[in-house]
Amino acid sequence: MSKVVRVRYEKGVLKPLEPLDLEEGEVALITIKRDVRRVLKKYRSALGRSSMKELLELEEEAHWQ
Q1: Burial of residue 21, with CB atoms counted within 10 A of its CB: 0-12 exposed, 13-18 middle, 19 or more buried
Q2: For the chain, first and last CA: distance in Å?
Q3: Which of 19, 32, 35, 64 is deepest in the core (most CB within 10 A)?
Q4: Sequence-ordered list of residues with C-beta below 8 angstroms from that of 40, at least 6 positions apart, any chain
Q5: Reduced to 3 states, what is the DSSP secondary structure of residue 51?
Q6: What does each C-alpha distance from 42 to 20, 49, 52 come to in angstroms?
Q7: CA distances (Å), 44 to each of 22, 23, 37, 49, 51, in order?
Q8: What region, left, alpha or beta, does residue 54 occupy, with left being phi > 0 and alpha being psi -120 to 50 degrees?
């Protein structure tokens, strides 16, 4: 089973922002993907007058990780 869960990184620890359906001591695999909207908003002025949709398409093409 896979599930997307938002997390916050604090003091070296990833903290889920919602409950996880895991047993104590259970090992799980995670994939780290930054919230690209936050990054794109930060650099939006440097990238010109592009719309958020255009910037998201640019991100998809570049495969930022």
Answers
A1: exposed
A2: 23
A3: 64
A4: 47, 52, 55, 56, 59
A5: coil
A6: 30, 13, 12
A7: 38, 42, 10, 8, 9
A8: alpha
Structure token pair of residue 5:
């869960």
The pLDDT of residue 45: 66
pLDDT for 2-52, tens place per residue? Answer: 888 889 999 999 999 999 999 999 999 998 877 777 766 766 666 667 777
Q: What is the pTM of this model?
A: 0.50
Q: What is the pLDDT of residue 44?
A: 65
Q: CB within 8 A of 23, min separation 6: which ones?
A: none
